[in-house]
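From the methods appendix. Each design record in this collection lists the tokenized structure first, followed by the designed amino acid sequence. Records were kept in a plain field format so they could be parsed without special tools. The example shown here is representative of the layout used throughout.

RECORD:
FOLD TOKENS (738 positions):
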């Protein structure tokens, strides 16, 4: 018997030596010889299972290690075998069984911290694979407790913390992972993602730069570096990143999409269209790109295939496809069901409701209602031009008003005014959606007013976390947000008539005149503009439309051309968003038999000066699908009449709303035929036009521009919202009477 044992020990030792050298085939043969002579040889069975695992035969590994463990499952020395069987189960995607084995290995214990760290690491990985992030994070915590320099544990812990929205802890974990493993490009890339999630783009840029330095072929980090540079308005550098990414992979649709987004911000829409087209060639179902491509085409007034493209896009949205962000859809179709479905799809993909912050605190009735206004546009921007007076006019005996600014820092005149307009002004631009929602709760905000909706720079995720018990969609986004966590939309009887309520996820609040607030302190520049300076002819009637070019459709343009043909010597004065739009519109004019020179384009100038130069125009011609909004109020404030033909959806009815609140109902016509006839008639009747202008001679007396009156009305709405909440009642439609 001693001779047999010696022989087994010799065979096993030879197998072990070969195993340690990586000669798995020969090692396995020696282990098999041992097992043939002693079927209960634990080490030979166990290590044969390890070789099976190392060579990808994981089912065989489980079987062999199970035979080994069956010999004496309570043996304290069997901990490594349970650990290895757990690893084998993981490779077979049997993570529950893997965890049972890791638990048994931990139960048997070890005095070696490195061994405990290894078992806990394997167990945490299994929990990660099972999508149990909280438990996995706790597991990585135990790994780090046993082995503080375990870079992979910090890395995966950080990724999971990022996944569940614990941004600051994620940054700390991933920074530590990068410090421990400074040459691990994945750690730097993940750190960049965490910084980006916190909107700390300076840190993101630094981290992504390190990632691409370590791995120049990391196209994802080139892309993310470009996105982060764009976020800090370094757009030229951003483009270079996408070009570098394309050097390594010309088929990645993400790169084309990201470059297109930068080009759009730079006003280079034609190039953006080309990139979106390339992205769709590689990924025909790429989320939201069809709509973005079409929106960029509309920006440059490229109407080739517009009808077919809009019809196809509408069909995709109706089928539940992520074909377009909801914001461009508002300018492409007046279908309320399509607008709502687009909003729902966008929210489902980008801003689903979440309860990670837990339930809201119990309702607290206070003497003052705390209203939070949330925007990226607390600077020289259309929203601020409209609402600045409201923030100042709030009754401080009954309301406390807080501004949450998540846009880029600004140092302009409007920013200074708004900083002083709020009781508290908080720059939350570096906060995650979760952090901002949590801060709002801490501040005891009763009513959170989202001034962005889904427009550029939006942060609807703040409200998905429930920043306040009452949440309101107002001013920035003229449509439903299609989500259960926005309780109200502020409107009026014109923009949302009662028969349209079913198309809005929110309860509708009717204000008595117009939903649109205006600032009665708007300054009109003192500069006196001449026709010559504006590029206008010395004689002839001046029609104008200062709407963004994407609002111009082939249908309304054809009407405009007929108007010009019927009013000899007249011109159409348009805003020049970009040079290509002007070229395309002049070409379209020629196609209608119109002299292209009868289209005159106005460059962008400071707001006060723009108001002043509108005195040169005779009549503002509105666009039907997406009206003039702020632009309509600008014109009326400057004394310029606006002609509109209201459509079916909110964006198509705003000009009618502000005209009714200005006592100019006669400028609201029911059809494009009436629109054409009215424009021609007014251009030919100076007396009638003068009478309309007279109604605008003192705009501060008009309900549209009575800021204090508007504030009183919206405060009545806020009070009723708060009272319903405090009474434990669900939101309901509200009508504020004048």
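DESIGN:
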């Amino acid at each position: 018997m001693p001779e047999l044992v010696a022989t087994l020990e010799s065979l096993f030792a030879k197998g072990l030596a070969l195993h340690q050298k990586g000669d798995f085939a020969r090692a396995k043969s020696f282990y098999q010889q041992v097992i043939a002579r002693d079927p209960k040889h634990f080490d030979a069975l166990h290590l044969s299972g390890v070789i099976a695992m190392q060579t990808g035969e994981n089912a065989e590994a489980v079987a062999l290690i199970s035979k080994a463990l069956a010999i004496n499952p309570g043996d304290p020395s069997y901990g490594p075998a349970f650990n290895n069987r757990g690893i084998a189960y993981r490779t077979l995607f049997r993570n529950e069984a893997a965890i049972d084995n890791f638990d048994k290995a931990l139960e048997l214990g070890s005095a070696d911290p490195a061994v405990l760290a290894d078992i806990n690491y394997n167990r945490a990985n299994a929990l990660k694979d099972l999508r149990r992030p909280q438990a996995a994070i706790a597991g990585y915590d135990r790994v780090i407790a046993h082995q503080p320099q375990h870079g992979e544990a910090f890395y995966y812990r950080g990724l999971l913390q990022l996944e569940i929205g614990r941004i600051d802890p994620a940054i700390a974990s991933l920074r530590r992972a990068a410090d421990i493993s400074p040459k691990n490009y994945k750690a730097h890339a993940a750190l960049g993602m965490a910084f980006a999630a916190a909107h700390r783009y300076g840190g993101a840029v630094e981290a992504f730069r390190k990632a691409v330095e370590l791995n120049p072929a990391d196209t994802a980090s080139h892309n993310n570096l470009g996105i982060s540079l764009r976020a800090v308005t370094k757009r030229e550098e951003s483009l270079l990143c996408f070009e570098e990414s394309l050097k390594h992979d010309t088929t990645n649709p993400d790169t084309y999409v990201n470059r297109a987004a930068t080009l759009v911000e730079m006003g280079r829409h034609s190039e953006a269209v080309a990139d979106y087209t390339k992205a769709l060639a590689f990924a025909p179902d790429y989320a939201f790109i069809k709509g973005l491509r079409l929106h960029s085409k509309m920006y440059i007034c490229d109407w080739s295939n517009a009808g077919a493209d809009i019809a196809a896009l509408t069909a995709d949205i109706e089928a539940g496809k992520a074909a377009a962000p909801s914001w461009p859809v508002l300018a492409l179709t007046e279908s309320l069901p399509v607008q709502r479905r687009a909003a729902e799809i966008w929210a489902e993909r980008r801003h689903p409701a979440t309860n990670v912050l837990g339930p809201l605190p119990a309702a607290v009735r206070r003497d003052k209602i705390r209203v939070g206004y949330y925007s990226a546009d607390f600077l020289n921007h259309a929203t601020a031009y409209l609402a600045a007076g409201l923030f100042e006019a709030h009754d401080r005996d009954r309301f406390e008003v807080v501004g949450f600014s998540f846009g880029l820092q600004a140092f302009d005149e409007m920013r200074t005014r708004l900083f002083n307009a709020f009781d508290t002004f908080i720059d939350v631009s570096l906060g995650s959606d979760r952090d901002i929602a949590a801060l709002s709760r801490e501040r005891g905000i009763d009513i959170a007013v989202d001034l962005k909706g889904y427009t550029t720079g939006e942060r609807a995720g703040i409200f998905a976390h429930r920043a306040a018990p009452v949440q309101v969609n107002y001013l920035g986004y003229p449509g439903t947000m299609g989500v259960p966590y926005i309780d109200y939309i502020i409107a009026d009887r014109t923009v949302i008539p009662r028969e349209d309520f079913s198309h809005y996820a929110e309860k509708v609040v009717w204000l008595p005149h117009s939903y649109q607030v205006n600032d009665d302190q708007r300054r009109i520049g003192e500069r006196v503009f001449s026709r010559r300076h504006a590029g206008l002819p010395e004689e002839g009637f001046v029609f104008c439309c200062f709407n963004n070019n994407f609002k111009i459709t082939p249908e309304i343009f054809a009407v405009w051309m007929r108007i010009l043909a019927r009013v000899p010597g007249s011109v159409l004065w348009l805003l020049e968003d970009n040079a290509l739009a002007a070229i395309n519109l002049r070409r379209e004019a020629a196609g209608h038999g119109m002299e292209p020179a009868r289209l005159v384009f106005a460059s962008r100038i400071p707001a006060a000066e723009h108001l002043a130069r509108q005195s040169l125009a005779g009549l503002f011609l509105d666009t039907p699908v997406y009206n003039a909004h702020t632009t309509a109020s600008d014109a009326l404030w400057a004394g310029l009449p606006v002609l509109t033909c209201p459509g079916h959806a909110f964006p198509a009815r705003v000009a009618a709303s502000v005209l009714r609140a200005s006592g100019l109902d006669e400028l609201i016509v029911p059809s494009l035929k009436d629109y054409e006839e009215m424009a021609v008639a007014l251009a030919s009747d100076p007396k009638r036009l003068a009478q309309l202008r007279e109604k605008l001679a003192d705009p501060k007396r008009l309900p549209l521009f009575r800021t204090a009156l508007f504030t009183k009305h919206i405060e009545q709405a806020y009070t009723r919202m708060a009272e319903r909440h405090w009474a434990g009642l669900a939101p309901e439609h509200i009508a504020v009477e004048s």
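APPENDIX NOTE: The two ends are 107 Å apart (CA to CA).
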